[in-house]
Amino acid sequence: xxxxxxxFYAGPAGLPLPALERTRDELLDFAGTGMSVxxxxxxxxxxxxxxxxxxxxxxxxxGLPANYKVLLLQGGAHLAFGMVPLNLLRHGRxxxxxxxxxxxxxxxxxxxxxxxxxxxxxxxxxxxxxxxxPKAAELKFDPEAAFVHxxxxxxxxxxxxxxxxxTGKPYVCDMSSDIMWRKFPVEQFGLIYAxxxxxxxxxxxxxxxxxxxxxxxxxxxGLPSYLGYPIHxxxxxxxxxxxxxxxxxxxxxxxxxxxxxxxxxxxxxxxxKGALLYGCIDRHAxxxxxxxxxxxDRSFMNVDFFLPTKDLIDLFVKEAKKNGMIGLKxxxxxxxxxxSIYNAVSVADxxxxxxxxxxxxKRNG
Amino acid sequence: xxxxxxxFYAGPAGLPLPALERTRDELLDFAGTGMSVxxxxxxxxxxxxxxxxxxxxxxxxxGLPANYKVLLLQGGAHLAFGMVPLNLLRHGRxxxxxxxxxxxxxxxxxxxxxxxxxxxxxxxxxxxxxxxxPKAAELKFDPEAAFVHxxxxxxxxxxxxxxxxxTGKPYVCDMSSDIMWRKFPVEQFGLIYAxxxxxxxxxxxxxxxxxxxxxxxxxxxGLPSYLGYPIHxxxxxxxxxxxxxxxxxxxxxxxxxxxxxxxxxxxxxxxxKGALLYGCIDRHAxxxxxxxxxxxDRSFMNVDFFLPTKDLIDLFVKEAKKNGMIGLKxxxxxxxxxxSIYNAVSVADxxxxxxxxxxxxKRNG
Lengths: 365, 365
Known about the structure:
The structure is a homodimer of 365-residue chains. Chain A is α/β, with parallel strands linked by helices and 365 residues long. The first copy, chain A, has two domains: 17-259, Aspartate Aminotransferase, domain 2 (3-Layer(aba) Sandwich); 262-364, Aspartate Aminotransferase, domain 1 (Alpha-Beta Complex). The first copy, chain A, has ten helices and 14 strands. Chain A has helices at 17-25, 45-62, 76-88, 102-115, 212-217, 229-234, 244-259, 262-283, 310-322, 347-364, and strands spanning 6-7, 68-73, 94-99, 119-124, 145-151, 153-154, 159-160, 171-174, 189-195, 206-211, 289-290, 302-306, 325-326, 337-340. In chain A, α4 (102-115) links the parallel β3 and β4. The first copy, chain A, is globular, with a radius of gyration of 21 Å.
């Protein structure tokens, strides 16, 4: 019997057990080929079926309109931080970036490397340590900006845009840590990118969703070929050898997501998990102090909170680990506790954490 | 009982069965963590141990001197085609490229995108369809070139530099399809890159080996951060989330390589496999026609040959498949048969192929 822990890591993070079991069971012999999926040509019909199914499942689960392409690339959000401005901003175009946390700031800094002063910060809550999202009145957009970049969920700080910012412009969005947590109207998005390692699959796969007009805006002239989005769109992400094993596992995760009722079922689970965990924090507001200052900005993916002392934080992490709960130590910039409760974390997992938190406050509160 | 075929794919290609079995057995619970290796933080001590072991095994198996760094990146050789000139050639430096096949030409074309006329073709056998490597007298080097780029094994055409070209310059080398096939004196190499999906592991991992003086020559100024080699060297390839699962499998493959006697044992196997297969081709020289025109240039990794007619080629592929041998169809630019016999293809596998070839020539010769 395999022992499995309750996994609250912020990413790489837990994946659905049935998707992992399928991966294990087929590891030496995939689709009746007598090979592992990592041993077969990416030009074979067996691999291409997986590749196409992964893309079709992204489309289906998210309800993407026909004028969006799905690309499966490499390099994570970090490479996307660079590819977005390399494709969209080298030739005089301008953009606004909303910086709402550690990763949003990195996206902005990388865009400045490429486009300098043509990218502007449209708003930031850095003075408040990113403990809330900016209000509409705090955002100022450049009328000449071609798009507004934002980060839909701030993994480090635990804020999430429940309503996307009112910009009047197309969005470009880093959705690495909350893609597939719920369905949303995609029409205002020109481009979405997401490293797989939170809600989608293993690290090493990057999902890019791009609207046809944004694809047409991409200018890959003079760029090394891998760095241009259009070639990947034209070749169905088979321009070069893709990360086949990672894409296969992405397919397994998405097929599992579909089997349990798609994003409607996943969202219901996520809302229940959030209600349980924030409910516990709010019940013991004198003991558990949320990092995020505005309830409306709370993330359903990453829940950051403090305990009264540093010693209690350390004890919490230690005792939780003893009880089979892993990955609760907060990110270095914030400290405290961070419970990441991505899609693969079950309601029962959160109930386990909440029961532990109730006991902990009784013993130490 | 898992059925396994004999795998002659050119890449992604077969991997050693014990390395795959270890991957399967640990897939739900890695290193006693109760998690898959793809579910655990890349900052955890358990993952870092794997990461460091993979790097240490590259060093040990290849016998790398202390003044080389090993980086584990993403994007395959394609992204490396761009990263090499972006790091080394943007600021007036010059380089020579030897173009000996399909992939060598791509490397050259990508370098020209970045550095224009500052990269020169030092020699090419394109007029002969790359069916041999250039002779020393056919190579002309620019005295101002900072390095000479070459492709150590030409996957498509089936040529391999048994003696590296005499250049008097440091090498930069695409070793994607023959890294780890034998030990070689590494001192003349300034930088080596290799997509993992032939001799190392799954696609989605790129191994880069860089000499300290070449690392110091890298200028990442103004590049999106992911594209600079120095940041990855400084952060031990943990600047961003690495492709953890792929690196773990790389570690499993290399640990297996070490367990069977390292590169000395692997080279002996490879030479035996080459002798068996080329022996059969040469015995039936009227029937099996090698694509490569110079015996000295023959590859121990990819063996290209023709049969008298297109129909016989198709029949060969079909009957081989019926006998459990996969991946023998030649690359579209060359046609014919290509048997890729990377490290994970055993002597017994090649004996199976040779026995089939002997029977085929008897029935159809």
